[in-house]
Amino acid sequence: MGIRADFTAATRRIIAERAGYQCSVLKCGLLTIGPGMRPRQTVRNGIAAHIYAASPNGPRGTGGLSDKERSEPENGIWCCAAHGTSIDSDDGRIFSAAQLKAWKRLHEARKAAEVNGGALNHVGLVDSISVNSAPAAALVGKTFNLGMRNIFSGPNASGKSVLTRLIASVSYPDHVAEMSRHRDVDMEVRWFDPITHDVTTKGRSGSVTHVLDGNPVPYVARPYKTILLHLRRGIQIDNIAALSQVFDLSASAMRSTLSLLPSESSLIKDVRIDGMRVDFTLDVDGRTWRYSEYGGLPSAYEGLIVTEIAGLHARHHARVEPTVLLLDEFLDNYVTSWQVEAIERLQGTAEHAQVAIVTHSPQLLIEASRDWSITMLEGGTANRRDSSLDYEVETRQHPEAASKETD
Ligand SMILES: [Zn+2]
């Protein structure tokens, strides 16, 4: 204990170069290297800031990472001097680890595209959602910051499913209309595309209003893309019409998506489409499974197939607009090893899309890799690795809500 996990000069250079020597903080992008006053002089004013702290008691804690892990390039975010300072000020409360990880990832994705002669101009993310009123008392008065890879957990009635619907409702306001029949809905969502947008959505007795960036609008014309899957809806995976409905795609777009699967998926080896029928051939642990031959596969396979389609669909969208894939208890019926396999596979397939998983499964919280930021909703308890204090419970009270009575 007590050893500082500082970056070496070589590590700092890797962090800086991966960022193109530009500040990674969303909307900043300040260049941190350039010519100085004299002909042979250069100026550098960037900082490699720690996502999890260099010292065990530092800002944002250790995240359960060892000293060695905290001194590696993955734990550093390149910033301008001003942002480097604010990241470490106020005990790191201004920016969460989930946010910093998301910004690093997005910034590096943009630089990777640019270095290859392209651009990811519309890449962005949903940054936060603040709930002032909703049919889930546990959410009221809280702000949730989202990273790229999120797991939400908590007991029954902690508002997990409501939260996913609120996130989805910027694209699908009918969720708010429906919820507001039970209780008024009042929430704000901030997202980047890469310009910052704030939308306030209010629902009352089934009617919904939006204020986007300060202006009332009938609906959000260009929201982020939401893909929402939930357990309660059984999915008939061998039918194009059913899949089209689940993914909110036309039948022809669904066919094209499915026909791309074998070239993009390590799980799905073949997809045959005959009219509205679909047949999948899977490669699982060296065994080949054909959906039609088994009259349906064990349901876990169906879950893996749908998760795979969802991941690739999300990846496709994330190249042109901010995209969030929400899986609401979708994997909870499967054994933990299947759940872990499905979500870790998503890390790659969903690429630059944000993923948020809602789960009841305590085991998933323990076995998911550290790339996942865990938010425990009110009343929930669980142990993750060595320190329960390392949860990224990114909730804070609104100043207004703290003084207000909520029921
Ligand atoms: Zn900056």
**Name of the CATH superfamily of the largest domain:** P-loop containing nucleotide triphosphate hydrolases
Number of domains: 2
Strands across the major sheet, in which order? 11-10-9-8-5-6-19
The average pLDDT score comes to 84
| Count of helical regions | 12
- Derived structural class: alpha+beta
Percent in strands: 25-35%
- Percent range of helical residues: 25-40%
Tell me the CATH topology of the largest domain.
Answer: Rossmann fold
The value of Rg in angstroms is 22 Å
Could you tell me how far the N terminus lies from the C terminus, measured between alpha carbons in angstroms?
44 Å
Task: Tell how many strands the DSSP assignment holds.
Answer: 19
Morphology? globular
Largest sheet: 7 strands, antiparallel
| CATH architecture assignment of the largest domain | 3-Layer(aba) Sandwich
Oligomer state equals single chain
Architecture overview:
The protein has 407 residues and is α+β, with helices and mostly antiparallel strands. The protein folds into 2 domains: 9-115, no CATH class; 121-407, Rossmann fold, CATH 3.40.50. The chain is 30% helix and 26% strand. It has 12 helices and 19 strands. It has helices spanning 9-18, 67-70, 81-88, 97-115, 160-168, 174-179, 240-247, 251-264, 299-318, 336-349, 362-367, 399-403; strands at residues 33-35, 42-44, 46-50, 76-80, 125-133, 142-145, 149-153, 185-192, 196-204, 207-212, 215-217, 225-230, 268-274, 277-284, 287-290, 323-328, 354-359, 373-376, 395-397. Strands 11-10-9-8-5-6-19 form a 7-stranded antiparallel beta sheet. It has a 5-stranded parallel beta sheet with strand order 12-16-17-7-18, with helices on both faces. It has a 3-stranded antiparallel beta sheet with strand order 13-14-15. A hairpin with a 2-residue loop joins strand 14 and strand 15. The radius of gyration is 22 Å and the shape is globular. Residues 380-407 have low confidence and may be disordered. Bound molecules: zinc ion (ZN). Zinc ion binds at residues 23, 25, 28, 30, 79-80, 82-83.
